[in-house]
Amino acid sequence: MSRFKNEVSRLEAHVKSLRVVLGILFVLAGAMGLGWWSAPRDLTVHVPPDLRSGSTRKWWEIPPETVYTFGFYIFQQLNRWPTNGEEDYARNLQQLRAYLTPKCQTLLQAEFEQRRLGGELRKRTRGVYEIPERGYGDDPGFRVKTLGRDAWIVNLDLTADEYFGSEKVKRALVRYPLHVVRMDVDPERNPFGLALNCYSGKPQRIAPATPTRSIATDLETDVDAEGEQP
């Protein structure tokens, strides 16, 4: 009889130890979940120059590749209308205010009202993307032109697609000469410290790339003010 009692006691002790282990695992899982939830969603990473090779950089100098990345990213987000241009474009103008100069904000708002009244936004979807082999790495000197310490021209060669429902109503290959300026006034909302000042010139149609054609001299005709400007 005592053998059975000992076996029962052993099993009860084993069950109790399993409950303790389960409780510890539950506490650990809760702690890891809390740490995951409280982890920062965005991290600012500073990449200093490699001083072993004698490289130095002025603190106020912004690399041209950063300027190009900023111009392309903000312009692409501004022209992304996933469901309805009448609502999406207005929302983009509001959400990206910190990345636009006051002058550009006013011009784009007026352009939005003009297109809305003309029926060019309702139920329209739109997206722009780089034309293959026409990105920054293909001709850095042409893609970003430095006007001074605080101003640049960014030449974007993009494909602009627009749809009305499921029907494609526009596809255009366009060169957008963006005017980018330094505007480090609100790091909380604009960590780039840059802003779009709209265009330095009129957007223009471009021809498809060919092996013998220079990307700097392949402009065809000025872009229709009504048809291809964002």
Task: Report the major sheet.
Answer: 7 strands, antiparallel
Number of domains: 2
Q: Return residue spans where pLDDT drops below 50 for at least 5 consecutive residues.
A: 211-217, 220-230
What is the number of beta strands?
7
Structural class: alpha+beta
Shape: elongated
Q: Total number of helical segments?
A: 5
Instruction: Name the average pLDDT.
Output: 83
User: What name does the CATH topology of the largest domain carry?
Assistant: Nuclear Transport Factor 2, Chain: A
What helical percentage do the residues reach? 25-40%
CATH superfamily membership of the largest domain? VirB8 protein
Measured between the Cα atoms of the first and last residue, the distance is 90 Å
In angstroms, what is the radius of gyration?
A: 28 Å
CATH architecture of the largest domain: Roll
Q: Which CATH class of the largest domain applies here?
A: Alpha Beta
Order of helices and strands: HHHHEHEEEEEE
As a percent range, the share of strand residues is: 15-25%
Quick description:
The chain has 5 helices and 7 strands; from the N terminus they run H-H-H-H-E-H-E-E-E-E-E-E.
Essential attributes:
single chain, 230 residues, alpha+beta, Nuclear Transport Factor 2, Chain: A, 2 domains, seven-stranded antiparallel sheet, 5 helices, 7 strands, 36% helix, elongated, disordered C terminus
